[in-house]
Design a protein that fits this description.
By secondary structure, this protein is mainly β. The protein contains one helix and 17 strands. About 10% of the residues lie in helices and about 40% in strands. A hairpin with a 4-residue loop joins strand 16 and strand 17.
Amino acid sequence: MKKIKAYHLLALTLIISIISGLSTIASAKENGAPSANTGSPGDGKSCAHVDCHTGSAVPKDGLIITNVPASGYLSGETYLVTVTVEELDVVKFGFQASPQNEDGDVLGSMDLISATDTKFVGGGKYITHTLTGTAGTGSRTWTFNWTPEDAHGDVTFYVAVNASNNGDNASGDKIFTSSVRMSEDPDNIPLTIEQINNIRFDIQALVQDELNLTVATAVNDAIIIDIIDLNGRLVSANSFDYSNGTFSLPVDNLNSGMYFVRISNAQGATTKQFFKN
């Protein structure tokens, strides 16, 4: 009898350990996907594998878009990248993206727009969601910047997204993969390190009717400050003959919601997001 009880206790302990382990794994992935899971040829896998999410990844067009023009990218210019997934009745999502060549080498550099919703893994080669960045109601969008720093030739952004069933295990989720290829502008001239744009700005305060920015650049050139909505539409354009100091922009005509501020000069551009109450 004692042996039977001991076996039952051992079995119960093993079951609890397995459940606890699965819960820990699920919680860890809620705070970002592990490196090399974009579905790119270089990574060789997406999030749909045995120790991440069960099932097979499904290719899906249009999950990732950029504002790189049809003529191609220019070195030193900063471009906006948007990842969007829609899945009815889903309230938790995840993603991982990376700009690569066919050998899996990372090309250019990415910058966070929202450190609350996104973060880097793999030494900056991959961008993924944070725990806060998983929430959604039928859809989820993540945005970030990408700057080509050389003559890279064709660059492809690969992305894998997860529409989660919000369970504590790896089954029941839907994994989709997508990619977008960007060519290099034929007139592109690679910049030296000294020439690469270095615009820095902070959103100092956002009141009901006014957006206040503090901008710093290496040279006091003329700048343009644009406000862009989530659909990529330009809703406000403002030109200034200088680029260092504090700038106040009226936003009383904007509806409540998320917007982007893009500051650009002759060398390039930098984008951040803000919420208008």
